[in-house]
Specification:
- It comes from Lutispora saccharofermentans.
- This protein is of the alpha+beta class.
- The radius of gyration is 16 Å and the shape is globular.
- The protein contains 4 helices and 9 strands, in the order βββαβββαβαβαβ.
- Strands 1-4-5-6-7-9-8 form a 7-stranded mixed sheet. It has a two-stranded antiparallel sheet with strand order 2-3.
- It has one domain: Gcn5-related N-acetyltransferase (GNAT) (Aminopeptidase, 3-Layer(aba) Sandwich).
Length: about 180
């Protein structure tokens, strides 16, 4: 693949047209679940495929992220979005040390070539600049998603964000220490 260009997006750049060629497809076969205090990989199969409603909601969320002082990063190949990540600007945790990595997604055809790693790095750098000590991730529980976060150095969150757990009870609550950045 040719060069991927990364940039922080402005509010006016975030619109439905940005996602016209983006393919949020994932075939899931196994997911992690916490049972009796232990993480277990279970046979849970389903397919995720975003449609117009999901993208419309995503656009409003990402615009809100920018409006409230957070950041949205895009990865582009031939001027087409192939990945994005967002960091919120609301601190939480008992020491107010967390900022949330609210999204990181790579278009299906562009996975496995390092785009996610670069976007994760950009999000970490931005969160540290904003004053966070840790990045918090309420992450999809699929085997592949969790393998990515483990490779990045994430671990189970020391403190869970109750609202995020309520919003997505099957997600894995993770954190990443920004002291390495």
């Amino acid at each position: 693949m040719e060069t991927i260009c990364y940039k922080e997006l402005k509010k006016h750049e975030i619109n439905a047209a940005l996602f016209e060629s983006f393919n949020r497809y994932q075939e899931v076969k196994k997911c992690w679940r916490k049972e009796n205090g232990e993480w277990v990989l279970k046979e849970i199969a389903f397919t995720e495929q975003w449609g117009p409603d999901e993208y419309e909601y995503l656009v409003s969320c990402l615009k809100n992220t920018v409006e409230t002082g957070g950041a949205v990063f895009g990865a582009f190949h031939n001027n087409m979005l192939v990945g994005f990540a967002s960091v919120e600007n609301q601190f939480f945790g008992s020491q107010k040390e967390y900022l949330q990595l609210s999204s990181i997604h790579i278009s299906y055809e562009s996975r496995g070539i390092g785009i996610g790693k670069k976007l994760f790095s950009l999000a970490c750098k931005k969160a540290k600049e904003m004053g966070a000590q840790k990045l918090y991730i309420s992450a999809h529980s699929s085997e592949e998603t969790q393998a990515f976060y483990k490779e990045m150095g994430c671990r189970e969150a020391a403190e869970y964000n109750a609202k995020l757990v309520d919003d997505e009870p099957c997600d894995c609550q993770l954190e990443y220490s920004l002291s390495n950045e």
